[in-house]
Amino acid sequence: MTTLPHERTATPDIPARSGGLASMPWGRLVRVALLPAAGLLAWQAMIWIFSPRPWLLPAPAQVADVLWSERSRMWFHAEATLRATTTGLALAIVVGLILAAAISASRVVDRVIYPWVIALQAIPLLTLAPPMTVWLDYSTTQVVLAMVVCVFPVIVSGVDGLRSGDPQLVRMARTLGASRAWTWRHVALPGALPSLMSGLRMAAVFSVSGAVVAEYVGGERGLGYLTQIASAQFETAVAFAAIAWLGVIGIGLFLLVCAVERLLLPHRFRSTRPTRRSS
Amino acid sequence: MSDAPRIEVRDVSVSRDGHQSVLADIDLTVAAGEFLALVGPSGCGKSTLLDVLAGLLRPDRGDVNIDGRPVRPGDLALMPQTDALFPWRTLAQNIAIGPRLAGVEAAAARVATTEILERFGLGGFAHHFPHALSGGMRQRAALARTLLSGRRGWLLDEPFGALDALTRADLRADLRATWVEHRPSVVLVTHDIEEAVLLADRVVVCGPRPMGITREIAVGVPHPRDPRRMADVRAEVSEALSRLSGRSVSA
Asked: How high is the ipTM of this complex?
């Protein structure tokens, strides 16, 4: 039997593809780190070429030094921001889920409240920070602002998810004798999770901005406050260190949501259930 | 055999939005343990009739009785064309829903589930999610769920319509064997004449909207059936169907 030319050339490509970076256990991490590494290198190159004064543009090494040598000062501020962010996010998830459930369950709530929930998003919510400080103390303002900023993605993704349920599964549940409550818990809610988790990923990232903007308006603690004070005093390396901390918090929360998603939706990531569980 | 329900449909009419008639004066009785097939052109309202039979849709007129009592959702088991397995539950968890909702203890439900999965050749896939299985395996799981639901009356809505010919033949044989063993009362909706004739005791031919019954054909051939011996019945059903389409064209 003769071999066609394209068949012969096609074969050797296969092992070549599976080798290299892609098959290394750290390959994925390396690829993810490529872009930040390039950014740091470009930054360092600027320092080498232009040698600016440190208050104008500190070197990456100077920022790293601040992160370490002033770690207790950094943590003092990071802790405040982290606490406000996570409290705001947690509140947003609870309030957002309750509202999403009410909107998708009741036609009246849907008609009376939901249009305004959408319309409110048109307001740049961060501008609410100054008037809010008139009524609330700074740390409460921070939590409320973080909550307000990230409650919308929770509501909208929750409503979308709860509405996009498969009617065939609802029919099936009813003919198996399920109650309305069972159907909500075991059909509507799991069906809404993929959409909801997308909303939660956005909410996790937004919540940091909410907390930081509140710190600009007042108070004397937090990474937003620190960036402002440090910049005003030309401690630019400290400001950059605070921004690095904010990035870590944002990415950390994002990854946390992704991890929760893997726990809640194992069927999206694997073909069998990881641990045997009673049904 | 005698505990299978008798399903009675009396003068059922359904219309959409109050004017467009979908079902017109349907009169139908399924005897206890009988296998009835409903054949008709697609879009003729067969699925609407199944919703009425399942108690999911209240007819505008007429009523459906199960052993003399008005039907409620959950009285009869439903097996739709799409397997309707919950994607976030494993096969075992899916099949256990029926017994769990009926109040069976988790441990007992697990034993029954394992047993039935083994019997349907799905024993090795109990902890797989539905998306990891082929269409034929999923539909076999749906059949297992129907059987384990404990309902003695089954509504099958083109259950094998989405499968390839070989898998369909396999599943037909599974369904026939299951029915012969357990003798539930079955209403099978299909547009596959072969399927209707091979499986059913009686074939009902339905006309297009508004759907009405135009012909009833008793199959009267004992199981197991030889497809070659079914030619007469098949011809009779096809003839009834083609006369229907002729009428709908001239109308």
From this structure: 0.84
